Structures are given as structure tokens and as C-alpha cells.
Amino acid sequence: MFIVNYIKEVLSAVRSLLVGLRRTGYYFTHHKEIITEQYPDNRDTLKMADRFKGEVVMPHDEKNEHRCTGCTACELACPNGTIKVITKFDISPEGKKKKAIDKLVYHLELCTMCNLCVVACPSDAIVMAQTFEHSVFDRASLTKILNNPDSKIMEGVE
Amino acid sequence: MWSLSSISNAIHTWLNETFNPTWAMIFEMVIVGVCVIGLFAVLGLVLVIMERKVAAWIQIRLGPNRVGPKGMFQSMADTVKLLVKEGMTPNGVDKFLFNLAPLIAMIVAMLLMAPIAFAKDFVMWDLNIGVLYVTAVSSITVIGILMAGWASNNKYSLMGAMRSGAQIVSYELSAGLSILTIIVFTGSLNISDIVLSQANGWWIFKGHFPAIVSFVIFIIAVTAETNRAPFDLAEAESELTAGFHTEYSGMKFALFFLAEYINVFIVCAIGATLFLGGWMPFHIGNWEAFNHIMDYIPSGLWFFGKTFFLIFLIMWFRWTFPRLRIDQLLNLEWKYLLPISMFNLLLATALAILGWHF
Amino acid sequence: MVEEIGNTTEGDLIINVGPQHPATHGVLHLIITLNGETIKKVEPHLGFIHRSIEKMCESLSYRQFIYVTSRMDYLSSHINNHACALTVEKGLQIEVPDRAKVIRILMDELTRIASHELWWGAMAMDLGAFTPFFHAFRERESINDIMEETCGARLTMNYIVPGGLMQDIHPNFQKRVKDFLSLYKSKIHEYDELITGNIIFQNRMKGVGYLSPEDAISFGVTGPAARGSGVSCDIRKLYPYDGYENLQFDEILETAGDSFARYMVRIREMQQSVRIIEQLIDNIPEGDFQTKTKAVLKLPKGEFYTRVETARGEFGVYIVSEGGTTPYRIKFRSPGFSNLSALDKMARGEKLGDLVAMMGTLDLVIPDIDR
Amino acid sequence: MGNEEIKTKITELLAASAFDESGEWLNITVSSQDWFSFASQLRNDETLYFDHLFCLTCIDFKTNLTMVYHLSSTKFRHNIVVKSVLDITKPEIETVSSIWQTANFHEREVYEMFGVNFLNHPDLRLLILPDGWEGKNPMRKDFEDPINMIKL
Question: CA–CA separation, C342 vs C347, rounded Å?
Fold first, then answer.
């Protein structure tokens, strides 16, 4: 029957539309389902995952000592030249020459947070920090020197 | 009871006592003009913020919440932004028509405001063919859109305008037929008379089945006529970027934007007037006490409440449904809505002749 | 009429969709010849995001080149990394620990669900329904959170290295995945209510953009797009890798070949991915997450090819090694490139509005096409 | 069908083909003149039925260019690799886009990246490179772009 089919068609179509309207109507009235994160406002409570790869940093202890031996493993592991290790020769108290880092230059603007340098580091000198607000007005300030001024290598790290 | 009509009457009397009738008339026109423009601005702001909030809540978002309390002044900020933007007229467009088109869209929206009864005895122009006037004038909208699409000298705009033309012309039919259903019951084209005829019950309740069907068809048809999703083919942004107003920016774009919202308001006002009793309070048969309490709610509130309910319905559609394709859009009109509304009109006429409605 | 299609005649409208267009989801440029609303020809023009990753990889070592592949099909970056790691392992003949294999598959399937979620939302948005996009992101967000916790990044994870994984899974991983599964199951019916069952949507999709099985094979279409035409091409079933052969899951096949069939394949595929995750999540074997590899990897002279199933289709990595520390030539067979070539065939004779639906069901990711 | 059977079958079709079984799949080297007729036989032969060209690429070995075609059969699930060595000064080979339609796009890519001229190709234009690209083909080993290439 043409007429019956026609009416059935119209009714099932209307029903499918009403089902959709009921679902959106549910969300319209249930505001506790809202998932918006009010980002700059929730900065205080925002906690990044502890493995989050934000930028490469070099931790220093309270005596201003780091663990970097200047072996350039990170520089070799980096796919796009983000890290440059500049070494110098320290004279130890016994008068021996010892290789140490002068500067560990890190180009945040080139970094893709691939974690390969951290994995490659044999002495765990560099780690990934959880910071993520990297925007600055001057591109030059994205080039960072990871070791603190006057910092030394930690005792016993080879 | 306090009412808007007493204020308007007082102003009218005072003006006629102070000035001669010609000047009184001119002053009244100026007052009405200022009121209409003010209403336009307020409605535009309110409807935009309403749409954004409705959309946000349906989409499990918060929506605008930065400007003012709960983001209430967001649309003001938007307006300021649009006002200070450069009103560009691209090279290669038909400059006269390009700049005229948004004005036409706007003027049509303004003209449509005239015969609407906002509250008891509060109507700008109590025209005896009010409904006919609205249906006639609202079809001029398409000229503004076609003009914009053609003058833009852009293929997207032209396609959007052509789609819009086909769409508005065909959906006028079923909108007109569903309005006719109510006209058959009331026997009058005067909007005030139509409202008064619903004193003992709104047509959607009194008109039995045909009134409900024609209400549904009316809502679908006016959604299509105002180019709102799911019928927003004229500006389908995933297909035609922005359709007929692709080339517009700044205040000219804002006029189109505003005209769309005002059109939505007006068609919803017509729907509220025809089917939901306009400013007439909600009355139930013999419940005198209940009816009396309902009468205490100002008639303007009733009108705006009903209108905004219909506007909400149309927004709800927009944020739920996907868009139709152009051939499906015309199929829906010519294969479904038109036959159903014709049959419905026949049924309504039979009911009216037999006097079976309340 | 049919003869005319394909030849531009006077009165045809040529419009440019893209490189900046809301429907292309990236910088794809389509030159479309229209007759009224009917499409006569679609001509893709690529290269707006071509970074020549293949050339770049020629100067990167076998450990380093993996991270670049995340930037191709960024929605299934894990699976791309997996394919690269498999190729290097094939060359070095390393056996990966069972634990690493299982975690790799878990991550692959989570990525697949995330990719299909995004596709679902974006495709609904192409068709004019805006709400599903946000609803899809709710579920996708919890997958991204899992990724962030375990891999340290949300989209370009770089978690898979030759020989296993970069780190072990986070202690919360299993719990979070189970939470996600229960969230997903409680919301899956909404997809049906909002979009799949909707009459407007069905009319837009059914019978549109037909691709015959013969054409699908000839055009090299793979993945859900080909399975919608009834072509069995799931690499996980046909050429299993890393333990897919031990898992219970179905290859989804639809035979209609239209947009709706391709849509349904992806929707049902998400449930199969959930099934795979459920089988594995409580059965992650104990042990190492990585085998010891040499500090500098050198592939022997030869050619190595790996095929994996990404969310978009068959992804192939072809490495030609001369025995050095870097690949001599590397070729990525990206699914999107072949799938896009079938768009012209599908779109001819259809309406302009359906083009976005077809592009949606092909699930084009532009960096994947351009590489 | 196993590798041995494919080998005997292919030797019947084309006696001049050279085999290499060191890789995962059977490698066949054909000359560029024989390629088109051989390809249509591979596609149309009922027992081989290689209907799926899943990878088409080119390798620059500095002394020659090698076209590599990875073929698979959706019916029998066997795979082969066909190679054809081209002259680096004038690389030319017949197109197979009439046999496998996917070759249309892949050959255009190889055309602009390696400069291989595909004879009888229906639409051999630039696909990825910008219009009016002049100069060398970017994926060749001797390509140098002093502005955009960063050497580490």
C-alpha cells in the first residue's frame, strides 16, 4: 500500500529526529555533563602527568652540581640539532686535565619532545620537565643554556 | 491593570493636545522608528547570546563566560568588533548592489515588524490583512540574498544565492498553507482578530489534529525560509564556505547576521500569534481562578515567552541535525510537506464548516 | 549527460575547494568542475604541506627517523611508529619481548579508536551537525589523557623504539584504560541517536559515492574505505604482526560500497578495537619492555618492507639499506594518497554537497597524503 | 601460490626475467621495454592475478634509477616485487596506470620527484611541486637546495 508506506516512512523519520532531539535536550538541561576546562583560570589546580614531555632541563642539586659529563650522547641522539654540547677542560687538584661541559645549549624552538636525548643520556643528567607554557615574544629567549652558571659535575659521576 | 496600551494612549493624547495633528503624527512616527531600531538592537544582542548559550550547553561546553556576568555582554563586544572593522568592498563586485543588499535584508526585516501585536492593544499598524502582509513582505528577503550573491562576483556566493532562491520560493508554499489553516478557523486576516479569537483557548488546542499538523509544518517551513540549519544550504559552510555572504565583512556582514535573527524572531512571533495565542494568556475552560491568575501575567510577557520558546525550538533543531542536500530539501517540500499541508487544509476546512472546533 | 561528464564545456563552473576551506580539514586543494550542482570532475592538487619526510629520513639514523613519521598521519602516529620499528627490527632480526608486543597492540588500538572518534566528529561537522564533534572529543580526550600519562605526549607520542618501547607503562595505565572502556560503552548509544539513526544523515549517506570492489582494488584503496566496498584488506588479519594472530576480532566488511557503508565500517571497527583491548588489558605479560640493542643500529644491505593497518588503511614502510647507519632510500606508502586518487571516480555525477561526505568517509589526513 | 610456482609461471611468461629471493618476497627484474606487456600479464593471468599495486616507487642508485613495483593479489594473497632498472640520463618507462589505476597518482609523484618520464601517461603533470617548478628533481641524490635544506 502506497499510502501506508508513505505514512510509515514519515513517522519513522520523525521518530529518528525526535530521538536526536531528546539526546541534545538531555545535554541542554544537564549542565554537570559539561567538560570544558577553564584553562588559564585552573592553572593552580592543573597538574600535568609526571611523564609529560614539556622541555629538556638539567636538574641541579642544592650544591649547584649536575650530572652531565659532556659525553655528547644527547647531541648525537637528537634528530634535529636541538642540543649543542660545548666542552672545556678543567684542571683537577691533582693537575690532571678533565673534560667537562662549558655550556649545554638547548634550542627549544627546534625541539620536538621526542625524548631520545633523555633516553640516550648515560648518566641521567637531563630530564623532561612538565612545563608547557613556552610562548615568548622573542625567539632568541627560546635558546637556553641548561647548566647553571658556575655549576660543577657531581662527585662520582663518570 | 498596568498595560502598555495606556502608556501609548497617554502619549498619543498628549501629542495631539500639544501639537497640530500633522506634527503629532510625525512625532509618533519618530517615536515608533526609534523604538523599532532599539528593539532591533536589543533583539539582535539577546538572540545571539541565546544562540551561543544554547549551542554551548547542547555541546557540553560552557559557552561565552568572560564578558560581563556569565558572559551576558559577549554579543555587545562582538558588535563593537564588527562596527570598528573595515567595511570592505572587494574589487570586481557590483558596488551599488553589493552595498544595497544588506540594507534590503535589513529593511525587509524592519517592515515585517509592523503588524505584529506585541501586547494587548500594542501594535504598530493594526492592518486588516496583517497575515497576508507578513507572508508577502517576507518573500522579499530572497531578493536581498540573490542580490548579495550575484553582486559579490564569487562562485560560492552565487551558488548559495541560487540555492536560497529555490529554497525560499518553495517553502513559502507550505508556510502559507499552514497559515491558511488557521485563517480558515478564524475567518480573519487581521492579527488582532486572530489573537482575540483565541481568548477561550489557543488554536493549537482548539484546532484538533489539523492545527497540530500545520504547526509542525509551519515550524519546518519557517526554519527553511529563514535559512537556518538543517536547511542552511545558502551558507553551508562546509560546502560553500559562507554562501551568499562570503565576501561581506564588518558591519555589512553584521546586517545580514542581524536580519537573519530578526527574521527568526518575526516568524516565531507569527507562529506564536497564530498557534499559541499571541499575547493571550493561557486559559483552561471553566477554571475561573486559574484563568484569573494567568491574566495577571502581563500580556507582553506572554507574547515574548511564547516567541522565545519557538525560537529555542528552532535553535534546538540547528544544533542537533545535519544539513540536507539541495535535492533532498526540495523533495521534502514538494513530496512531503506540500501534499500533507494541502490535505491538512482540506481537513481543517471541513472542520471549520462543520463547526467542530471549539 | 553521462558522456558530458569529464569534459569541460561552456557554462561549467570551476570552483576551488581549498587550500583554505572548512571542509578539507587541512591544506588540500581540489579543483572541481561543476555543472550546476553536479560534479563533473575533481582534480586534487597536493603539496601544500609536503615536507619531504622521505628525503629527511635519508639523513636520520634508524632510531631518529621514527619520530618524524608521527608527523605524517598524526592521528595514528603510534601505528606509523610501530610500522617503522617493525621494519628496523625485521632488518636487525631482533625479537621483541612479549610485554612490549602486547603494549604496542594496546596503544595501536587506542590510537585507532581516537582516530575514528575524531573522524566521526569531523565528518558529522562536514555534514552540518556541529554537536557530535564535541561529544566525540569527550571520549577522545580520555584516550589522549592515557597517552599523556604513559607516553608523555598527547598526539605525537614517539613511544615505540626499535626493540620495544621507550618506557614501561604507567602504573595507572590499566585502570585508566578500563575507565575509558566503561565511559566509551556508556556513550556509544549516543552516536546512534545523534547521527547514525538520523534520517537526514542516512539520506545524505546512502547510495552516495559508490565505489565498486574492482575500482577499490585498482585504485589501491585500503582500510575502512575499501572494506566498505567489501574488499577484504585488513593487514591485521591477512599479514598479522606482533601477535595480532592470537587475538579474537572480526574484520568488518560492508558490501554496499557507498558512503554509509564506509561510515558503518569505522563505527563497527571501533567496537572491534574495544574487543581487542578487553582481551589484552588484563593479560599484559610480565617481563622486559625492551630488548637490548646496540647503541648504533646498522641495517644489513637489503630491502625491507612492512605493512601495517593504520586507522586509514594500509601503511607501508619500504627501507632500502646500503648497510650504513641511515637508510639509503625510504618510502612510506601512505593510505591517504591512494584513497584520495579514488575521489574523482567516486564523486563524478554526485552533488557538491555530497563531496564533503565522500571526503569525510575517506578520512583524509592531509599530512599523510603529502608526507 | 608459493614462490617456486610463481617463478615457473613467470618464466613461462617472460624468459628474460631475473629473480632474487634474498628478501621477504620474490624480486623480479625486468627491462623497461618488457614491463608493460609483462604487467598486463601479471594482472590478467588467472593463476597470478596481481590486482593490487600497493606500492610504486623509485630508487636513485646514482648510477641508475630503479623503479620498484610491489604487487599483491587479493585473490591468492601472494606478493611479488618487480623492479626495472632505468637509464639515469634518460629515464623512461611505460605507464601502468591503465592496468592499476592507483599508478596514475604514484607515477605522477615519481615523475616530479625523480624525473622519470612515463610514456603514454594520461595526465603527466606536477602533482605535489608548485606549478612552474624548474630545476632538478627533489628526491634525487644529487639535489641541492641551498635555501631550504638544513644540513646537520
Answer: 9
